[in-house]
């Protein structure tokens, strides 16, 4: 784990960092942000560019569990085709101002901008038990080594927590990136995972979520 004043990088799978959310009181008006950003390596040379495959589309999502046992999932496949809603109404994008206190801000097809973001409302952290943050390649080959994917978790008044995917060569198109545990002691612990799976369902089984799955599309 690498630490400086503004950033804490979880370097190895299993590395953790714990934040005391009750220390000096977490700002209830400033969201916790989970950001996925990625780029695509530029191929050098005329023929490399000419025959290069298309842009890589990563999608950010999460499994979440509440302290009362409720479990569900939020990601781009769940609110495609205009099925999203507002932050104040429970939809497939989640809900920011009520249960589950988690909101996906929208799909980014290229990662060329600010990437994709999931917001966690600090007013609801006492009801949250755990989150597994993941991303997946919706279509095309699993070209992870070209994505430079990075997840950054921003907690107000704390250094950013960074999980870099690094140069990965798995042929599986789904990656569990990090687990966030919300403790009864008003803590929040982030753990680096970086494990690869064929799909949502197999990741669910690996981390004992026990949900049912069916195919989705954009």
Description:
By secondary structure, this protein is mainly β. The chain has a single domain (2-206), classed as Sandwich (Lipoxygenase-1), CATH 2.60.60.30. The chain is 6% helix and 37% strand. The chain has two helices and 14 strands. The chain has helices at 46-50, 200-206; strands at 2-3, 7-10, 16-20, 32-37, 58-66, 71-75, 94-95, 102-104, 116-120, 128-137, 150-154, 160-164, 174-182, 187-197. The strands form two sheets. Strands 1-2-12-11-4-9-8-7 form an eight-stranded mixed β-sheet, with no helix packed on it. It is globular. The model is unreliable at 42-53 (pLDDT under 50).
User: In this structure, how is the largest beta sheet organized?
Assistant: 8 strands, mixed
Which spans have pLDDT < 50 for at least 5 consecutive residues? 42-53
Tally of alpha and pi helices: 2
CATH superfamily assignment?
sav2460 like domains
Question: Percentage of helical residues?
Answer: under 10%
CATH architecture: Sandwich
Oligomer: single chain
From the alpha carbons, calculate the radius of gyration and give it in angstroms: 17 Å
Strand content: 35-45%
Round the mean pLDDT to the nearest integer and report it.
Answer: 83
CATH level-1 class = Mainly Beta
Strand order of the largest sheet: 1-2-12-11-4-9-8-7
Number of strands: 14
Give the structural class. Answer: mainly beta
**Order of SSEs:** EEEEHEEEEEEEEEEH
| Euclidean distance between termini CA atoms | 37 Å
Q: Could you say how many structural domains there are in total?
A: 1
Overall 3D shape: globular
Task: Report the CATH topology name.
Answer: Lipoxygenase-1
